[in-house]
Amino acid sequence: MSLNQPIKSEDLLGSGVFEGCLLGEVDLNGTRAVRPTVKGTASILGTARWVIDKNDPVGAGFLIR
What we know:
The structure is a single chain. Strand 1 and strand 2 form a beta hairpin. This protein is mainly beta. 0% of the residues lie in helices and 38% in strands. It has a three-stranded antiparallel β-sheet, with no helix packed on it. It has one domain. It has strands spanning 7-10, 17-28, 31-39.
């Protein structure tokens, strides 16, 4: 995505459209990041429970590079 270039995406069930845009870039302690905006509507269709093993290294989070 390019900065200030809106994109539209339809949800998986076809019941809504979402729009997003990258507003700018920022530096977070030496890590390049973006300021996004997202708008649209959604309904709760279900719930999930995540169980994370304390020995799983992904359980602490991850960065997409």
